[in-house]
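ARCHIVE CARD
CATEGORY: sequence design from structure
SOURCE FIELD: tokenized fold
FIELD CONTENT:
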């Protein structure tokens, strides 16, 4: 489930209306804090477990991951000779959440304490089969159909099906994301939660979701939603309550490149109030975004 499907708040901004160019009045407030978002990450969007005690949630997530390794992958024809190697690769993939890190670097991070490393062909098989099972759900690189942009990178952004799975693979909790050694993953996993929410809402709007990054990295947009008629909504995700001009520079660039094809621009935040900036860009707390 996306965040707006979990009953943790009352969405006041519709992504579908943004895509159709109909959501000019952006408003609403929420009491969700940064810690509340981290708890939503830890508890997952799986409807059968996300309201259970944390210890049971952790156990269910571990069981789910182990079942994929022990049963689901063999059922689709992939024999796992060294389950611990696959687990290490999954943890390396989880650590790359919300980034276009190359698969070569993920493979390098899979090296065990004794220096052993799985073969590249083995990890390609992991990737392909785990994507087939919907455990991996990468965000593809995006390019506009009507107004092609040059120099765009097509590498996907890495995402698991639910950020709770990434947190579990990395042994992270809401507490460690907030104050502990997991703090470097706080931003990427918040973006994972936002991505899940945007993708669910975009599906209801018959829209596709990608990310945009130029080859030299001078411009990037976290999420680009393209509607059925080619209309574009650019989205940045910020683990912050306040938005500065620097935070929207890539959105402004996108609007300058695509002109009228861009029907709206938005920054998703951890703040408490939805509003429009003077430049027309919407600022929307994640808890207020729905379909």
């Amino acid at each position: 489930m996306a965040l707006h499907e979990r009953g943790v708040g009352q969405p006041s901004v519709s992504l579908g209306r943004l895509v159709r160019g109909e959501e000019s009045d952006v408003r609403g407030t929420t009491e969700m804090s940064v810690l509340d978002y981290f708890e939503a990450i830890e508890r997952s969007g799986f409807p059968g477990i996300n309201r259970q005690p944390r210890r049971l949630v952790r156990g269910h997530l571990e069981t789910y991951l182990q079942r994929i390794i022990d049963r689901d992958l063999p059922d689709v024809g992939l024999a796992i000779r060294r389950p611990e190697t696959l687990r290490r690769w999954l943890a390396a993939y989880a650590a790359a959440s919300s980034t276009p890190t190359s698969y070569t670097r993920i493979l390098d991070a899979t090296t065990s304490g004794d220096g052993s490393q799985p073969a590249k062909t083995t990890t390609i098989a992991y990737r392909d089969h785990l994507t087939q099972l919907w455990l991996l759900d990468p965000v593809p690189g995006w390019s506009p159909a009507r107004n092609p942009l040059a120099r765009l990178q097509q590498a996907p952004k890495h995402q698991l099906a639910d950020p709770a799975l990434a947190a579990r693979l990395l042994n992270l909790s809401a507490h460690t994301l907030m104050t502990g050694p997991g703090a470097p993953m706080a931003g990427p996993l918040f973006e994972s939660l936002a991505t899940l929410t945007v993708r669910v809402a975009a599906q209801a709007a018959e829209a596709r979701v990608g990310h945009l990054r130029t080859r030299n990295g001078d411009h990037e947009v976290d999420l680009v939603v393209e509607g059925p008629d080619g209309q574009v909504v650019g989205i940045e995700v910020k683990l912050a309550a306040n938005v500065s001009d620097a935070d929207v520079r890539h959105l402004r660039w996108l609007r300058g490149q695509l002109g009228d094809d861009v029907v709206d621009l938005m920054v998703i935040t951890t703040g408490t109030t939805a509003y429009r900036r003077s430049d027309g860009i919407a600022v929307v707390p994640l808890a207020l975004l729905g379909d």
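CARD ANNOTATION: Strands lie at 13-14, 208-213, 220-226, 232-237, 262-269, 275-276, 282-285, 289-290. The first strand starts at residue 13 and ends at 14.
SHELF: design records, drawer C
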